[in-house]
Every structure is written in structure tokens, then in C-alpha cells.
UniProtKB/TrEMBL annotation:
InterPro entries: ARM-like, ARM-type_fold, Armadillo. This is Importin subunit alpha. It comes from Elysia crispata. Signal peptide: none annotated.
Amino acid sequence: MAGEEHRKLYKKSGKDTFEIQLAVKDSLLSGQRRERERLLTRKRLKVESLNEATCKLSAEKEQLRVEGATKLLKSGQKVEALTALHQCFARDSKNAETFIKCEGLPLLHSCLLSTNSSVLHAAAWCSINLTAADSHAVQKALRLSPFLIQFLSGSDSTMQELCAWAIGNLAGDSQSNKETLLGQGVIPHLLNLVSTPHHVMVETRTQSVLHALINLARDTTYKCCRCMLENSLFSSLKILLKEVPESSQLCQEIGWLTSCVYSREEIFSEILNANQCGTILHLVVDKLLHLSCLPQDESKEKMMIPYLLCCGNMIGLSTELALLASDLPMFLPAMKACLSSSSNAILLDTVWTLSNFCAEPSCRALVVSQSELMSRLLSLCNEADIHFELLSEVLSLMEGMVRVSCVMNRLLIKQGTLENLSHLLKNSKSTVADKILSIMEILLQDLDLPQQPPGALSYVRESLQYLTTISFDIKLVERTKAVMELFPLSTSSV
């Protein structure tokens, strides 16, 4: 009953939880396609700074190089041969197919059984570039996975780093590979390497482990994510989010792993500890605020985006988490800091996160009460170089904000919303103009127009009048005139 009474306090509820969850699912998929594939390669090469590795040869010469290196491997000159092969794989993924046709895989397999650390390191490095090849070659290379996994529990940190990287490449190639690796028990071994602050401080190894975990977490069945959670991923993420400084390149990988696992619907139905999501959200928001304070450069955007996506998805998928975010003292400051970014991608994801937050009416009222945040949103609308998609998203957010209460709408007017919208209306496309009119109509209905001093709203009427003279859209003109009729004669004649 208390919940029902609470909702009656609001003028209009806007989108309900079900609607916002559907929107979040769509946004999640589009966000992953838009950013993740650009910022996080599923399979990665490992190449030394050798000129020979970067100069691509003709197809015939490449084939001869691979065949020659394979023969060299057979003759026992393992380190030299493996070094030549990993350079060949780096130059052209087709060289991996040539190597397999030359029956090189059993030779590489035997090298992984060596007791010589130099041979082992060269073989593991070669495995990385082999597993970064085309899918057909990667499927053949999957037979190496049991041997790669066993090195994860060894004492050689270099082998752990290289083998984790190769496993990440295998996992990133296909869903079936993820399931195979899961069945081979790879996840507990990987998580053990990030289970303590001491382990995490080995940065190059941690980066490789995170690469593998991220690609495993992207499975479509949720089996890998479930296995991670059952093997104390939550504890590892707490360590990673707390211990790794914002200046570290690991921050981006940590953000993607957190987002991959905690942006899934299943997390809310299967989670063992109800406090996990709240703790993760708190740590993600805190990290986002600190990242937003870093000097602007290319890496800053890459590091912030996964945390924004994780935050927006968690809030959008759970009303309880949206309410929890409203109690976090750093949430709205983090959003305000993100809105100061010069990156269009950051701005879009920030507005999207706020839209998910504002699906809950009480959260909407909280945002409206933040004058500095609202001022930044309104100023974004009138920036000359604003992207149309971003402008449309900001206006959609504003449409939701005016559906809280008359009191909140009067506060919006006091913050200069009508002035900003009136200015924007004169320079807008018809699709945007329709949204602006919807917002203005609700605001004007909640304003006691007869009590306004003469000329107080003349700028609003002027912008509406201007729109009727320049628009060729008959429906838009009729809509504009309907809004103009809200003005009493005493006000409209001024």
C-alpha cells in the first residue's frame, strides 16, 4: 500500500520498470556492438619490436618462410624456429594455415612439454599468435588448450601470462571454444591468478588473465559467468576495483570484465549474495568518478566507457539499484563530471545512464533538484556542434523529467528550461521540435500564466510564432499553435 500511495504523489509515472528493462536490453546490445568491438579486440597478437615482424612479404615468400621455420623446428633448433614462426603468424594469419598443413601442431605441442624455459616461452608466444589467426586454424589449435591451462597453476609467471593470453584468444573465437575451455576447468585457474592484491600487482600477467576472463564472460549461455561467480569472482573484482590505480591500463580491462558479468539479467535472479550487486555498483561509481577527473586523452574515453555501461545497465535492470545509486554521494557528481567530457561517446552513455536512473520517479525528482547537473544538460542542447543523436537523447530525458510533479516543473522553469528550449526551437529540425513542444506544453500547463508579469514569457511566444512561419510541416504548425493557445490573451498580446 505504501508503494501505491507513493506513486500517487507523482503527476505521471513515465516508463514503468518493464518498459525501461526492455529499453536497457536494446541499449545493451547496441552499446556492445558500438563500443566493445572497437575498444576490445577478441583476439590479440603479441609481437616484438622487430622490423621483420611488421614487413609483410609476398604469398610465396611467406609460405617458404613458414615451411623453412617448420623444418627448422623438426631439426631441433626450437627457439630460433618458434621465434620465426610467431613473427610469421603476426604478419599474416594465413601463415597459421600453412603451419598446420605442414603438420606443425604436433611439433608445437612437443615444445610445450619441454623442460627448457626458453623453449617454453617461445612456444607459448607462438601459441598466442597462432590462436589469433582465422577461426579454422584456431579450431585446430584448440587441442593445445589442456597444456596451456596446466601452466596457469605453475610457478613460472611468464608462462602464466603467455598461456592466459592464448586462452583468451581461444575463448574469443567462438561460443563452442568457451564451452570447451569451461569444461576443461580453466576458470578456477584464471581466477586464482587475481585472487590476492599480491597477484594483481603482476600487471602484465593480470592483463592477460583479464583478457581471458572477459572473452569467457561474453558467453551467450551465462555458464561461464555462473562458474566465475561460484569461484569467488566477486572477491577478485573487489580487489581489482580497489587496488588497481586509475592510471593503470588495467582499469579498462577490469571495467569490461565487471560490465560483462554484472550487466546480465541472470545476475539478478541467480546471485547468491544480495549485497554483491550493491557493492559492485558502489565500486564502479567510485571508479568512474575518479576516472572522470583524469586529464583528457584518448585512453580516458576507453577506460570510462565500460564503467558507464556497467553502471547504466545495472541501474536499468534493477529499480532497487537505481534507488541505491540515489543514496550514493558520488553518483550524481560522477554523472556531472561525465557530462563535462568532450567525448560524444561518453556524453551519449552518460545521458543513457541518467535515463535509466530516471525511470524511477523519485530518482527523476532528485536529478531535477540538482541545478548544476540540469544546467549542464540544458547547455548541451544549445552547443553548436552537438550531435543530433545526443540532442535527441537529452530531450527524451527531459521529457521524462517533466512528468514528475507540478512542483518539479516549476523548479525546471526556474532553472531556465523554457529559455533554453525557446532558443533551441528556433534552430531545430522538425523531429526535435516536436519533442521540444511536448516538454514546453507540459511546463506551460503547470505554470500559472495569468499571474506572470507582462512580457515575462514573450520569448517563448516569439519562438513559437517563429516556428509557425518557417515550418513546412502542417502537423507541426498545428501543434505549435495549440501550445500558443495556452497563453491567455493578456500574456499573448505583450
